[in-house]
Specification:
about 575 residues, nine-stranded mixed beta sheet, 24 strands, rod-shaped, disordered N terminus
Length: about 575
Amino acid sequence: MLDNLTSPSSQASELPKLPKAPSGIDGLDEITEGGLPLGRPTLICGSAGCGKTLMGIEFLVRGIQDYNEPGVLMTFEESAAELAANVTSLGFDLPRLQAEKKLRLDQVHVDRSEIEETGEYDLEGLFIRLGHAIDSIGAKRVVLDTIEALFSGFPNQGVLRSEIRRLFRWLKDKGVTTIITAERGEGTLTRQGLEEYVSDCVILLDNRVIDQITTRRLRIVKYRGSTHGTNEYPYLITEEGISVLPVTSLQLNHEVSDHIVSSGIPALDEMFGRRGFYQGSSVLITGTAGTAKTTLAATFAAEICRNEGRCLFLAFEESPQQLVRNMQSVSINLAPYVANGRLRIEATRPTLNGLERHLVSIHKVIKDFKPTAVVIDPISNLISVGNLSEVKSMLIRLIDFLKVNNITALFTSLVSGRNIQQEMTEEGVSSLVDTWISVRDLEGVGERNRGISILKSRGMSHSNKVREFLVTGKGIQLLDVVIGPSGIVTGAGRLTQQLQEQAQLMAAQQEAERKDRELERRRRVLEATIGNLRTEFESVEEELRQINSEELARQQALAHGKAQFSETIPFQEGSQPQQS
């Protein structure tokens, strides 16, 4: 009995999902989780200049080119020739698509002065005309631009609302995926205030100006039968059409790599436990003005290109020509990498675009160039475009985007020397990056030196030392750490300390040599003394040997004499001595 039971979640997964028609617009399908509702009307509303007509035309062109779905564009304001000319700069050849019978352009002229309110005016003629256009090419997609012009002939609000509902119902019955554009109303999404209620999907486009900077944003107000992104999404109108940046799709589920990328400075690599950065990680270099942040970034970019990689360098302060020229003075030759296409330098002023437009532009350049590393120099200039929270939000999304695509990112940031904690960045992204390198001024008596240290590096050990470095004609050179009586010594103090150490070493060597000479003298004296004692000993030994030899000879002679005497006077047994 229990085997036949299924959980509600498993039952829900088996239910069919709402069919969708991919729009083909970059980023929009990701936000809508598949596209627009198939066979249903979608309302695109917004103020003038936000790109409603362009989005509708791109929906038709992408459908024809990518999904082989013919389309009908019915316009109530611009002529077919005007529309074709307007979108030619985007690469959309509407006359060719018409000649191939994949697209049908139809202009309906509605002049309110020519319409009499007879009570019998309706949209029946439009349905016949639109139906013929759909059937003539087998259209699957329809765009109506714009609905306000169509309903200008309905001064009676009751009739107007009835016809709006009738139009949307007719489009659903026809089974075509439709985009209807509408103008923004006062306090409502549309002029009539009804279209958003009868539409299955409502997309709101906004073109706002903040601090003299224009930013376009898109928001999905509703989507019947489907989940969707609910945030505001920046979008960009470029020479290739509309590009939408999906924000909520960026999640912390990206793949990671164990491959190590070099900084381009061997001595700096040695300060990391893995001899460099992880590929796909984010690196932040912070410091005050003049601490060689750009030089460090250019060294990294050159190293990427030298190892057959591709690097995108986004400069907010220098032109490409100036950057290439300045780096040549420190033997960083970027010109060959620019020439062979491995290095691409994009230089713009931060105030040229808003933050969201910058973000969308970066997405587009990365998609086209496909780099393995990205350098942004410096991110602190973005403060001039938005407030701190906006800049931090933009950088968070950018870092996440680069991580998802396994692109190694290096950012430079200017910190104020007036702050007590000079390492803290104004953007507040230091906690988001994987590796944080700090370059600072090491001021001494009458001189200014540079120091570099690693504040953090996730996933690997790193040195805790502050290394002094020089910007020379051969690039960046890290110096060995010199410890003096009061701590680390830099600059002229380093030279003085080295001279003192050399003097101490020389004195120690001289003292050692003096002790060696004294030892040698004592050794010679001792050897002479030993020689004299040995000579004296040998003399005494010879004298004793002579005495012993003479005594032995005397003993032998005495013994020999006794022996001879005994032989000359023999002894007679029994004889008596004579008495006188």
